[in-house]
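Protein in question kept underneath.
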Amino acid sequence: MAERDTEIAELKARIADLEARPSPGDLDWLKSSHVWKRAQFAASPGWLKFNVIGVAVIWGGMLLYAVVSFTHG
C-alpha cells in the first residue's frame, strides 16, 4: 500500500510539473504508468464485464467437465 501511495504522490508531482511546462514525451510517460492503467481499468466497466464472463466460462467449463467425468466415468 505504501508503494502505491508513493507512486500516486510521484504521479501528482509529475502532473504538476507537466502542467507547468509540458514537453512532447510526457504524455507517453504518464500513459505507461501503472496508476494510469489502473485508472483506465476502473473507468471501463466493459473490460470488467469481459473478464467476469471469461472467468465464468472457464470455471463453468471445468465444473461441467468434472460433473460429466464423475457421472459417466
User: Anything to note?
Assistant: The two ends are 48 Å apart (CA to CA). The chain has two domains: 1-42, 45-73.
